[in-house]
Write the structure tokens for this entry.
Amino acid sequence: MTPINESIDTYLQTNLERYIAETVRLCAQPSISARGEGVRECADLVAELFTQHGLQVQKFETPGNPVIVGRLSGRSPRTLLFYNHYDVQPPEPLEEWTTPPFEPTIRDGMLFARGVGDDKGELTARLAAMDAVRAAHSGELPCGVVYVAEGEEEVGSHNIAAFVREHIDLLKCNGAVWEGGGVDEEGGTGTTLGLRGVLNVELEVQLMTMDAHSGGAHIFPSSVWRLIRALVSIKDEHERILIPGFYDQVKPPTELDLQLLDAQPDHEARMREMLGIREFVNGLTGKDLGRAVFNPTCNIQGFTAGYQGPGSKTIVPARASAKVDFRLVPDQDPVDILAKLRRHLDSQGFTDVTVTKKGAMWPFKASADDPFIAMAKRIGEELYQQPYRINPLGGGSSPEYAFAGPLGNIPIIDAGVGYFNGRGHAPDENIRLADFLQGSQYLARILNEFASLG
Amino acid sequence: MTPINESIDTYLQTNLERYIAETVRLCAQPSISARGEGVRECADLVAELFTQHGLQVQKFETPGNPVIVGRLSGRSPRTLLFYNHYDVQPPEPLEEWTTPPFEPTIRDGMLFARGVGDDKGELTARLAAMDAVRAAHSGELPCGVVYVAEGEEEVGSHNIAAFVREHIDLLKCNGAVWEGGGVDEEGGTGTTLGLRGVLNVELEVQLMTMDAHSGGAHIFPSSVWRLIRALVSIKDEHERILIPGFYDQVKPPTELDLQLLDAQPDHEARMREMLGIREFVNGLTGKDLGRAVFNPTCNIQGFTAGYQGPGSKTIVPARASAKVDFRLVPDQDPVDILAKLRRHLDSQGFTDVTVTKKGAMWPFKASADDPFIAMAKRIGEELYQQPYRINPLGGGSSPEYAFAGPLGNIPIIDAGVGYFNGRGHAPDENIRLADFLQGSQYLARILNEFASLG
């Protein structure tokens, strides 16, 4: 081990309790963006933490929640950006928590709290890493850092793309570390090269001004049936989306993508058990399950119509609506898909189906052979003593695209403190203290070496 | 006018206030079967009223709410049965009532209260009619009467069919007066010869044990899409039901049925305005709207799946369900249709769609040329001075079938105290006091002459 890494590890080991205490303090502050609870207080707390760690801090108001930016220059002009968010998911159902979600508690080497893995523990680990690297270099960082903490990740990051575009100079960097990552079932780490985009829409039909008696169903137009017919026109039974031009911009996976996908851990049995799944979409099994992430999807998040209580109610409902999300693969564009969806519905005669855009993210995919990825792989395998897994495309969506392109096609990696059973978004969310330490070491090594890539 | 009818009218006019007071008392007692509120108290109040009017009263427990039966024999062995129900719809939304639903109030010659038209005012009018006929005949009725008041009509009359089958001797009669009827827009009255049956089912799909992240929609099976595919397999875009054998027992309307339908008042413009309808089912207009009641229907009362709050939630829902009602025409059988629905779903591969029966009623249709109908027509036209309308088939469903067949194919007529704008099931439900008087006169004349049909 190099003397610098030894110094980093000693520093982090010695100061671990202090960083855990800082994590506890941050997690004790609710910041539920879905209902605005504690969000502004948490933004201020993040700004205070950044200041305490020696960053130059700016708080930016947005149409939603504040964005906190902390910066510090280093010996090299190269700069590494850390993306985090200080908002958390709602903690409900509360009765399923062993200890209250905003009273962080250590049990069996784990720290339990809402947001501890997603994403507050990661934020403090990154501050710990910076402190350790500075200490190892007599107080000066080898490269510059920019910490960005937004407050709307759990509700769709609606304002971050505009924020980045308006603050390109402030955020200028040569690479970024995203939230997430952490330890897989084999004890190793890895990264995801990209994520799918998403178009969230609400489809709505209202053919009457109020519900009518179902004894008149032979004459009263049904908004529910109408919406169902519209939905069926969008996707066939084999998951093929029928909107003309929907697949025009789809880039198929490369040979390398497929190799990387095939090398991912096999979660089939675990998913079957965890979710009680008897058959996956289109009967997929084995490696085809992994490869299917390159298929864009049309999912119904929710469907609302008419009477939903116990028993029956003799009505033809006046209104029906469905929340639909399209997950988009590179290089599909949610704005283009939205226009094509509208055109498709119109051409099929569904002019009575309204489409309301609820949110959009673009797909993003970094290059597998970027030197930053290679460096993360080398450091990750050395530290975790396990193969580094590169997932070419994650199924979800995040605002990576909002940073990567505008900041000059920077490479982005994941590097976190979570693990495969961290119960993100669920009751008893937790991190393992050992992962926090190892994750901090990993982050510090990356930060320490980042200047050398330039 | 005959001396008997003169005596009847004088009696009813003189005692009107007393019967309105009785109606007020009955309506002041909540009896919301949907949530059991006040139902048993109301049953006891009905039994008390029956006793006060000189009926021999029996209270029968059922698996649901009690059935109250009041009987009195007459000079002739012929007997007329009156069907009523003492339960009412929930009064919500309360804020839309001008005066509270269970504080009956007279305004502008109308009595406002939940249940006053449906069906408590009709019950008291029938007691008034009996009193008037007895008074005109020195205390003895010309025919026997059986009053049946059940307490579950507003929740599907689940126990009345079994009750009738178990008490055939007690309920023996030669004809029945149903609830409903009253005054149409032209000031006349009429009857409906029959009603459609209904099969209420809940279709449910659950392909996962819990909701999963919609970033996995390319592999996670969607219960919502699955349910939608199953529904689409049941009915085509032109309202044709695709279940094999569904139409086997359908009896098409006769030439007389069509004539009677064509003679019904034209509600097209009113329905368009009231419900904001631009286009009826299958583009129907004019007389075809009336005739369509002979088409059985498959209606979706409600559809429940996934997230229904504001914004989006990134889930593939684990479960989806739909409340579906099939309105059935003579001689379709809901038990047969349920079996055919299950077979159809299985044959289409939808073995993963569960079907739960929530209720069933059989269709019923009386003969248009029954002497009882002819008598009601003659009396109705004489009293109301307007053509008597005979509707061969109503779109809704009621337990008429549960009485008519088991009691020996008795004829059934409507004769009520309501009117076209009585706001049944809605806030500010009301009857006009003048209709109450006229309806009582009509009922009394029918009761007075019923013996003569034998």
